[in-house]
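User: Can you predict the 3D structure of Serine hydrolase domain-containing protein? Sequence below.
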Amino acid sequence: MRTELRELLSSTTGLFSAAAWSVGTADGVLDRGVLGTRWHGGPAATEESRWDLASVTKPIAGIVVVALAERGLLDLDEPLPRYLPAYAGGDKAGITVRQLLAHTSGLPGGTPLYREHPTRESLLEAIRTGPLRATPGARVEYSSQGFILLGLIAEAAGGAPLDRLVAELVTQPLGLTATGFGPGQGLPADAVATEDCPWRGRVVCGQVHDENAVVLGGVCGHAGLFATLGDVERLGQALAGGAQALLKPASHAEMIACHTEGLALRRGLAWQGLDVPGSPVGTALEPAAYGHTGFTGTSLWIEPERRRFYLLLTNRVHPSRSTPGIETVRREFHASAAML
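Assistant: Sure. Here are the predicted structure tokens for Serine hydrolase domain-containing protein:
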């Protein structure tokens, strides 16, 4: 294997305790590796270590939603109350599933609801009754609340818990045996640590980092999945090859197309497009590239025309989310990886 990416990630001392990466095509891997320790002073990170994917959960939940639409179990252009009747009659009654997927629902972005709503019921009620930030369809605002609702919509339409739907529609078709929500489900427990969390009073390891997801029980549409390097690598290869094991070609093409033309940011259905300027991975990838990042320091990006994937897993929130530098590392990683 090459040394460029290992040297780049090895030089970022202090930003994270561990990193794993893979770059390749639909047909094979060009470069991959694991370095560092699961927490500062802890055991070495290995191929079997499980990473908190954070918001990389969102496109996986999005695949579930689109797969259910393929099966005729939901309609992307139906409004919220069709699947969540409690939303009838309010200011959110006209939001469609498609708008939730494209982050154009008008729901607010990062909101620490867990601070005032410590139970699942009260947190979900806060989402239902909270104010919109914009008229649905008028602008892009990245919203985890929207993907919390998408997880509930998937459960209502699919007639099963979200973790089972993810297994049936994503992980099992691809053979991802070490991917799932949280430390349970019979999966390995050797997670990579995330934050020394003031709210929990401890270093988090094996529990989802996102606090709203903790209150919701850890199985959510916006965060909560853990996976090994090899599993996310297989997902990347599948996507680079057109996602044929997961979706019909037309459905996959619809997911990765831009649904926010004329707005400030490029968004597909659950995927982020390559914004220039402003992309978190820089501008070295092809203009049609799509992907997603995660707050814990994870990312998965695809170049569909080159049939390439770029995977970077770190625990950049360990021990603190305030440590700067992940933006630079992501840009430099993708600039170097695109040259392989």
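The longest helix spans residues 144-158. The mean pLDDT is 96.
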